[in-house]
Amino acid sequence: MSAAVALFVLMCFTAATHAVHHQPCHSPNMTGIMSVMNLKGETKALGAFTYDSMGKKLRFRSNETFPTNTSLSLDLLMFFEEGIFYEIDSKNQSCEKKALQCTMHPLDIPDDGKFKGMVQTGNPSIEGEGIKLNVWTGPMPDTKGYYYMFSTMGCLPVTTMYFRDSTPLIFSQMNIENEIKDPDLLVVPSFCQGQSVEETPEGTVNSFLNEFI
To answer: According to the UniProt entry, where is the signal peptide (predicted)?
Structure first.
């Protein structure tokens, strides 16, 4: 798995030699499936997501619609613009409201993302058998890590690889539809309303990415 990732990154560097100037675009509203894996090929989470591009809101629920033998079961409601998020336990009608120290996530290209080039997957010589992907990269805030994000020409993030000292992770989006099918998923549940923001322990960095470590 590690060798495959290294080869994939090498392809990106090769593509960068032909790169032209591009500005990061912003993804549209999305509904789909997200998987999270580490470099050992272990699935950390698999579930449905709903993303509001304009409102910068994200709901991710793992192991509910797509039960698997994964190590994490999460229900997260992220408000990146407000800098807060909720860890939701619908079964017990409870939640925790926390502050976000880092708003990076795999569903939008960061504004400071650097265009590295374009790669093609599949067989581009056969109609419908190939896809062009733009490659973006940049540093990860508050860490010594960096990321590679692969997006379609229409600005849909397909795969993002986050490399850092602790736990490198690979986020992949599948079965994407450019719409919010259920807006209620992006509304704070009634049993969470009025909740106070929990105090963040010193040295803790709350982020969507860190929920999978």
So the answer is: 1-19
